[in-house]
Each structure stands twice: as C-alpha cells, then as structure tokens.
Specification:
21% strand, binds ligand MTE, alpha+beta, globular, 321 residues, 2 domains, 8-stranded mixed beta sheet, Sulfite Oxidase, Chain A, domain 2, binds molybdenum atom, 11 helices
C-alpha cells in the first residue's frame, strides 16, 4: 500500500520538478517498505527514455526580459519548490511539495466571466501560447517576513485581458483557484474560505509587471508553485499571487479576497509591500531572504516603486493596506 501513491500519478502529468519531489518520496517510501533493491529498481526506471521525453516536453520556449528582471541571484529550484505557501495542500511550508502531486494539471481550462463582451473558455495549452513567454527574475516578499528571488516564465496579464475584451463596467478583475477537495485535500478543512480568490484593480492588472505565469526555471510550473497557471505580482505581498487559476471574473465592485475575508484587519485588498505599515502583529520593516541569515531592509513596493508608485498616487496607503 505504501507505494500506491506514486503509482497513481499518470505519467503524462509528471513534470520534472514534481517528479523530483514525488520520485524522492517514492525512493524514501520504497527504501522503507522494500529495502535497497526497490531503490535500485526505481533508479533504473528513472533513466528509462519515456521520462526523458516528458522532461523535454515540459521545457518551455522563452526569451529573458532583462528590463523587467532584477540582477539579484535567484534562489535555487529546490528552495523555490520545497518552501511554499499553498494551503490547499497543508499549512506547513514543506506540505505543498509533499502533497501537490495530487493536482491534475491536464486537461485544464480557464474561463472568463462577468463584464466582458463575450464569456469564453481557454484551454491551458492555448492560453500558454497566447503571447510569447518571457523569463522575468522577480523578487518575492511574503507577508510573513521571508523573501526569495524567482525566475518565472509567463507574459504580462495585460496581453490576456486585451483578448478578454472587458466592458467599460469592468473596474476590477478577480482570479479564482480550482475548487476540488479530492485533488486539494486542504479544502476539506476550514483553514480558509474556498476557493482561494484574489483580485486587482483594472489598472494594476494592466501594469506590465503583473505576470500571468506558466513556468519556473525554464520549465512548466511545479504543482506546488501553482501549476498550470498562476499570477505573479512582485510589488505585493505573496498572498495576492493566486495559484492554479481556473477563472477570471471581471467585475464592477472590489471583489472579495481570501485573506481579507479571513482576517480583514490584517490583510487588505491592496497588500502592497510597505515597510512603513506594520502588520498588526509584527513589523514589516525587514525580511529574511531564504538561504541567508542576516535580515535585509524591506523596500517600498518591494523595490518596484519606480514602476508602480504612480498607480497609488493620492491614496492613503495606511488606510489602503
Ligand atoms: N491558491 C492559493 N494561492 C496562493 C496561496 C494559497 O495558499 N493558495 N498562498 C499565497 C502565498 S501566502 C504566497 S507567499 C505565495 C507562495 O508562492 P510560492 O509557493 O510559489 O512561493 O502563493 C500565494 N498563492
Ligand atoms: Mo505569503
């Protein structure tokens, strides 16, 4: 029984990164259950050609967008894919890497609803090809006080929004994560309101930095990082960047967002990184980069003030946290 889990994964859904995690898990399990012979067996399976073919298929074509990238050194793939927040797969940082193999990322569709000329549905492979993929090395700042640097692959959300043809009534866009407790066991708990929802004001969503993200380190996203498609909003706290999105809803009024529903005095709609506004229970002045021990000063808008500050001119960022 112990070895059933990895065998359940259809091979078509194994990405190299998630395979790294699930194979590693398999090897540990196998070593315990069956002894060293099983490990040797698994090693042989790893070198078989079908998996090599899948690894090639998971690679994405892209060009580096240097203008929108930081020159800071990215965290390793291991750091980025084993230290995660994805409450659908548990609340510990190590839980998503252990459990997100349960997510089936194909077939997958993304639907467009609300204030648009015509509602429509995109297949994930069609969506991935809507615009050329760019690699952008972005800083990521979690509201909990840690940060990383990540080489994402995607294109500006604005490319997609233009295709959606929102009406003049569309003032905000909400993005909605998959809801399926069988694939997302965390949804059987009440730790958050499900599905996970987030959103942006339309001008924020149209900003070139707002990334519709399909990959990491040159390959499709590991499940635990929000496969097959997620948002990346580098000037905002990480919780704005919803994962495993199935729906975009264009709306007239500011949409509800998950962490704001959960704790409104702690998590606002804007969630812009702001060292001058403390979280009610802790300071936001400094952060620890994963892999480092010293604390760094947190920068206004996570270092993207030059690009995004004008979106908020005239707004009280203490009231609009
Ligand atoms: N659906 C969903 N999206 C989510 C979360 C989540 O729990 N569920 N966590 C958020 C938080 S708090 C952070 S910091 C980032 C983490 O993304 P990463 O694991 O790729 O670093 O995802 C965000 N998106
Ligand atoms: Mo976060």
């Amino acid at each position: 029984m112990l070895i059933k889990k990895p065998a359940d994964i259809p091979s078509s859904e194994i990405t190299p990164q998630s395979a790294y995690v699930s194979r590693r898990k398999f090897m540990v399990t196998a070593a315990v259950a069956l002894g060293a012979a099983a490990v040797a067996c698994n090693k042989a399976a790893e070198m078989a050609s079908p998996q090599k073919a899948e690894a090639a298929a998971a690679k994405l074509q892209f060009t580096r967008n240097s203008a929108l990238s930081t020159s800071e050194k990215p965290n390793s793939l291991k750091e980025i894919s084993t230290y995660n927040n994805f409450y659908e797969y548990g609340t510990d940082k190590s839980d998503p890497a252990e459990n997100a193999w349960k997510l089936r990322t194909r077939p997958w569709t993304v639907s467009i609803e609300g204030e648009v000329k015509k509602p429509k549905t995109y297949d994930i492979d069609q969506l991935t090809k809507l615009a050329p993929l760019e690699e952008r090395i972005y800083r990521h700042r979690c509201v909990e006080g840690w940060s990383m640097v990540m080489p994402w692959l995607g294109y500006s959300l604005s490319n997609f929004i233009k295709q959606c043809e929102p009406t003049s009534k569309a003032k905000y866009v909400q993005f909605v994560t998959l809801q399926d407790p069988e694939q997302m066991p965390g949804q059987k708990t009440g730790v958050l309101d499900w599905p996970y929802v987030e959103g942006l004001r339309m001008d924020e969503a149209m900003h070139p930095l707002a990334l519709l993200c399909f990959g990491l380190y040159g390959e499709v996203l590991p499940n635990q990082n929000g496969a097959p498609v997620r948002m990346i909003l580098p000037w905002k706290y990480g919780f704005k960047s919803g994962k495993s999105i199935v729906k975009f809803r264009f709306v007239e009024k500011q949409p509800p967002t998950t962490w704001n529903i959960s704790a409104p005095s702690e998590y606002g709609f804007y969630s812009n990184v702001n060292p001058a506004v403390d979280h009610p229970r802790w300071s936001q002045k400094t952060e620890r980069r994963i892999g480092e021990f010293r604390r760094r000063d947190t920068l206004m808008f996570n270092g993207y003030a030059g690009q995004v500050a004008s979106l908020y001119s005239g707004m009280d960022l203490r009231a609009n946290y």
